[in-house]
Amino acid sequence: MISLVRSSANIGYNGQIITIECGLSNSLPGITIVGLGAKAIDEAKERVRSAIVNSGLLLPKKKITLNLAPADIPKDGTTYDLPLALAILAASDQIEDIEYMSSSLFVGELSLNGSIRPVKGIIPHLEAAKEAALKRAFVPYGNMQQAQLLGEIEAVPCLNLKQVVDILNSKVKPQKFYATENKEPKIIKYKVDFSDVRGQAQAKRAMEIAAAGHHNILLNGSPGAGKTMLAKALLSILPPPSKKEIVAMTKIHSLSDTVTEAITERPFRSPHHTSSSVSITGGGKIPRPGEISLSHRGVLFLDEIPEFSRATLEALRQPLEDRLINISRANQTSSYPADFMLVATQNPCPCGYLLDDNKECTCSQNQISNYSKKLSGPLLDRIDLNITVSNIKHSLILNTSHGAEPSSEIKKRVLLAKKMQSKRFGDLETSNSSMDNATIKKLSAISKEAKTILDISAEKLHLSARSYIKMIRVARTIADLEQCEEVKAKHITEALQYRQKGG
Questions:
Q1: Distances in Å between the alpha carbon of 456 and those of 95, 469, 472?
Q2: Which spans in 239-390 are helix H?
Q3: How far is residue 281 from each of residues 186, 261, 323, 345, measured CA to CA in Å?
Q4: What confidence tier does 502 reach under pLDDT thresholds 50, 70, 90?
Q5: Which of 416, 492, 424, 469 is nearest to 212 (CA)?
Q6: What SS3 state is found at 137?
Q7: Which residue of 8, 192, 300, 382 could cross-link 125, Cys pair, CB 3.0 to 4.6 Å?
Q8: Is 340 exposed, middle or buried (0-12, 13-18, 19+ CB in 10 A)?
Q9: Angstrom distance (rounded) from CA 391 to CA 53
Q10: Rounded to an integer, what is the distance from CA 423 to the centroid of its chain?
């Protein structure tokens, strides 16, 4: 008898149905697994053997051959432990309701005692089950919080192998979970509030514009001016993620590691400057998402960006433009979303004090020139806002009477601006920063005076076509913050203040 059990493999960002076939033959007892499996799958036979025995079930004293089809797709991980065990039990007539089993998907890692551990990428598995028109998915109990996010397919929680077998044999009824809505908003306490940042009115304004339009921003200033503090405070004014964004963020993070909780807050990723290009963009022998994908719908913070390697920085150019990353390897090609907001900081020179009024710069002109060239023109052209952060007076640092606007007030304006954008684009995820030329012509009204100022400025400043569109995007966000339907001259002039010098 040949038994068939459905499981799923994570192929890049998506899941693909894998069929586990099991055949028994009268030969020396043993388990053989075929189907282009990696080391973790070869080791699964020992976990499966022990789990079956310790669950009070019978391991057939025959030659057991297990095939993972399609056999030409590389497979890795511990996801297949549960379906492998069930295939053996079904082939040895220990499963009664074969029809119920054939309409279900099974994923889970087995312990030696038969308990089921969480696995990576549970959302792609459920999406694969839905696309294959399967009725339900048996998933580890530890993955249920993520499984409930999808809500488009019945998810059956599994604690151990014996429980799953009892359900398939109609001895116990499955516990059903569906998507749940958290009616009470979660109160988040951020580490840095904008009220903690003294002075820096222009920098705060730039951060507000960046948050409202999902714009990339570069903070340039002396050491200790508050660049990192401003970047960390950005999280406190970003709009809360939508349900669709929560699913996407959780999906990405669960592919990178065995994350069992739903990602309900926008990520803030801050990799060290010694990070490799692969760790930033993603990849590896078996492709995994990198920092740019893990910061999807959130913030990628590159502190002291000139210290990152040239190869790493240049690898950001395509994701910043396309908002996704394509990773090609010899055995597979994967695509991951990478719609992140880049927040970067840099010093004006190697010693850092070129723009400082209190300390003298010790760098030569050649050193300053070489330092400024670490960021290429094409990369800078993809940064919407460029702001200089100046040092503040020491007397203001501990001055409690100096009332700085709290993040809660700034966030109200950001949310109103996002509301205008969602009305304009028809969804909550699209922002002004993603507008192309056709979208601007169709949806963004620009006054004649504003258009004239923009054209004259572009001619005098020698702006590239990308920079020209970038100015309109930023001006559109500034207008949204003022709840203005039309982009006016004052919005264009303010947007021009945040351009990169020389371009």
A1: 77, 14, 14
A2: 243-256, 277-281, 291-294, 310-314, 317-322, 365-372, 377-380
A3: 31, 24, 12, 19
A4: low
A5: 416
A6: strand
A7: 8
A8: buried
A9: 69
A10: 24
CA distances from 97 to 22, 100, 101, 103, 201 (A): 17, 5, 6, 10, 68
Angle between helices 448-461 and 489-497 (to 10 degrees): 30
Q: pLDDT tens across 228-264, in order?
A: 999 999 999 999 999 999 999 999 999 987 677 899 9
Task: Say whether 408 sits in a helix, a strand or coil.
Answer: helix
Q: How many CB atoms lie within 10 A of CB 353?
A: 19
Q: Which residues of 481-503 are buried (b: 16+ CB within 10 A; e: fewer)?
A: beeeeebbbbbbebbbebbbeee
Identify the three-state secondary structure at position 490. Answer: helix
Which amino acid type is present at position 94? Answer: Q
pLDDT per residue over 39-77, tens digit each?
999 999 999 999 999 999 999 999 999 999 999 888 999
Structure tokens at 85: 């065990």
Q: Give the other-Cβ count within 10 Å of 334's Cβ.
A: 21
Tokens representing 309? Answer: 């390697």
Structural contact between residues 258 and 283, judged by C-beta atoms closer than 8 angstroms: no
**Shortest CA distance to 414 belongs to which of 205, 128, 122?**
205
Tokens (6 digits) for 291: 């920092």
Residue 372, both tokens: 């400024």
Q: Which residues is 192 bridged to in the sheet? A: none
Nearest to 436 by CA among 270, 321, 328: 321
- Span of 59-73, 130-144, 178-192, 279-293 with lowest mean pLDDT: 178-192
**Greatest C-alpha distance within the chain:** 87
Extract the runs of DSSP E, i.e. beta strands, from 123-166: 136-140, 154-158
In sequence order, what are the residues at sequence separation of 6 or more whose Cβ sits closer than 8 angstroms to the Cβ of residue 354?
Answer: 222, 347, 348, 361, 363, 368
Q: Identify the CA nearest to 36 among candidates 258, 332, 257, 290.
A: 332
Single-letter amino acid, residue 303: D
pTM for the model:
0.91
Angle at 439 between CA 433 and CA 441, to 5 degrees: 120
Closest residue by Cα to residue 269 from 179, 198, 209, 344: 344
Place of tokens 């499966």: 48
d(CA 106, CA 498) in angstroms, rounded, equals 53
Report the distance separating Cα 158 and Cα 112, nearest Å.
Answer: 15
Phi, psi at residue 74, to the nearest 5°? -65, 140
Residue for token pair 């999902």: 214
